[in-house]
Amino acid sequence: MSLCGSYACGLCNYPQERRREFEANLEKAGLELETDDKSDSKDQKTYFLKIHAPWEVLATYADVLKIKVPFKESDIPHGQDVPLEWLSHPFRLPEHIMRPQPDYFTYPFDKTKTDFFLITDKDTFFPPSTRNRIVFYILARCPYYKEGRKDKDKTGIKRLLSNGTYTAAFPLHDCRYWKRARNAECESERYNLYNHWARFLCFYKEQPLNLIRKYYGEKIGIYFAWLGFYTEMLFFAAVMGVICFTYGVLSYDDNISSKEICDADIGGSIVMCPLCDKKCPFWRLNSTCLSSWQSHLFDNEGTIFFAIFMGIWVTLFLEFWKRRQARLEYEWDLVDFEEEQQQLQIRPEFEIRCTNRRLNKITQEMEPYLPVTSKCARFCLSAATVIFWVTQCLCIRVCVRKIQVVGRFITPQLATSVTASCINFVIIMILNFFYERVAIWITDMEIPKTHLEYENRLTMKMFLFQFVNYYSSCFYVAFFKGKFVGHPGKYSYMFGKRSKLRNEEVSFSSPLLHLTETLKGPVSQQFDVCFPFHGLLDRLMRNWWSSRKGRHNPENHYSRWEQDHVLQNFTQLGLFYEYLEMVVQFGFITLFVASFPLAPLLALFNNILEIRVDAWKFTTQFRRPVASKARNIGAWQEILNAVAILSVVTNAFIMAFTSDMIPRMVYLYAYGKGASMRGYVNNSLSIYNISRISEENMPDTQDYWFDNSTTTCRYRDYRYPPGHEREYNHTMQFWHILAAKMAFIIIMEHVVFVVKFFVAWMIPDVPSDVKARIKRERYLIQEYLHNYEVERLKLQLSASFMTEPPSETSLVADKHEVLSECL
């Protein structure tokens, strides 16, 4: 086998015994080993063990793993020409890049039927990604104890890496990415990927998904397919968001409420009650003039339409992605992969730690299993740990909010906001550090059976932690800030009245503006979620330093395995964090998109960069990952579905209880008779007698900004004025608005959900042409297998006739036996 498909392992100088036993067992498994002298390495301290898999090993394990290989070139047309195809020509890549190999009919490899498959060259029959999978499968299960001993814990390359026996284990990249290889034997997929995919100047080009799949495997390929499709769909949401924002700009001059607030005779004459105890003074309504104009840009009639549109958009995105995913499953031979993985690819850790055995009803073989009692105990411990850490995160968030509230009394508002954002950012980073380790520990404790099950469980736990970590601030601002504040004379306090910490109030400007600022402002969320160059400079510096230190040989003596060794390792959670970054972003632009219509546009720009930055990292900065298969995006699909359903609820509640649209519409049609919004500002403010404000609620300063003739202040609420028989109780208008809000929530949710279910029913998960192709391919496979067995029977019969004519009874028996095998 060429070195381009080999593994390289960087070795330390210790411990010799474990390495000798492990390498001896690798040779017994059929692998060929080649060791470089450490004096030839760049630092003259590191050995490199190159592992070659000969044909016999590849064929044996391809049979064991049921790897699908081609047996006949496909005669099914790939696609039909579409009208106006020339419009997409500038965005297309050359055909040899998009489809690096022709389409074939495939069938699980059978070592006893090698003449059935299209084997022209044994060295290139199995692609590099398949060779990597087979070698890693052997490395993960090979023991490093002497024959005759039963130390089952001493198994696999992962344990040898963790205990320092080896420093690294990785498949080799192709030759240089920045220049085409002069050696004809070295493959050039890496160069093609860099030239047509990883460069930023290709941002408007389609992605070579087939080449990505061939080089990195299906799991990484499906990630970039999903990311590209998500970015394409963001274009439509971004366009609608820009239209909604443009409507807010164009209707800027028609905003009567802001004009009244800014008017010196109206807003300038209204004295507002203090927003906090002691430190907050009385203030005039026209001081919120600028924020009222800003709130109109995001809180207008178009916002309701945009919220409904996004509820339908997210359904279209998920349904069309299912169709795209189904097409990739067929084209990449992944239709039946999940069942094979469940039955064959049991995690080595599960085999080692589960000593109980039972009969598998499908394979009729003894296999390890975890008893129900142990499984329940581990699940209960896992659930308790998750609840504990989620509760801890919420408590930390409450403490940060308490610091922010206290800070308002001591420092200016800007300093308090910046300090709270910095503290929030530091807390997110610290919690992320602990969450990763806790989630891995919990998942390891549960001992999942397969790699797929392990990844899905880890994904669910990590996203639950990150959901609380990232979204708790937005949920607080959207549904709690300014909602449960009470009224003058009867304020609500955060930790009881003794704490003297009043619940936060908001100024007269729309509370939706506060949520908008939370989404686009805090560094703690935007730095880690929507900035694609996060960690990029750090990775560049590490790679540069690793390649620089100890390098004494010229470039032509600097071997490929040494070049790959200085790159960053692609860890088990590497792809997980790529998904997490995008799914958290997806949550921001769906859960709270009603407050910021430009969020999809910013996400679109971010993702265009994200695709090329990720491609550049995979091609130039990471070691080549071990190729692995994945039928779909796994547990992320269920997470996206849950976020999509939750987004309909959150946006409905945001429009009802955070936006000012419902109170405005009630006033316009019930109290303004549909004529004008004039008088809305005065109508939405209640009156309180200043003389009845207790001493603990009055400001410390005596400069109240008004003369002695002013006896009342105003506050946001719908309550009867002083002197009324039901003074300070809610008015009927309050109950009318509350009923309108509840009716809006019910109507919006039902409309969006009905449309969602109708769209999901109308759009099948698997395209009809893909269903037809799958059925035809299965039919043709059976036909070709039948013809192959018949031809083999004829050859057997002719051979037997040449040696000794068989009897009629034995001939019938042979035919029956062979035909039974075919069936």
Q: Would you mind describing this structure in some detail?
A:
With 823 residues, the chain is of the alpha+beta class. Among the domains are: 3-172, no CATH class; 254-288 and 661-762, no CATH class; 768-822, no CATH class. The chain is built from 29 helices and 14 strands. Strands 2-3-1-6 form a four-stranded antiparallel β-sheet. A hairpin with a 2-residue loop joins strand 11 (486-487) and strand 12 (490-491). Helix 11 (289-298) packs across helix 18 and helix 17 (451-479) runs parallel beside helix 22 (574-591). The longest helix is centred in the middle third of the chain and has 39 residues, at 372-410. Residues 1-6, 521-539, 549-555 and 810-823 have low confidence and may be disordered. It is found in: Cell membrane; Membrane. Residues 212-777 form the Anoctamin transmembrane domain.
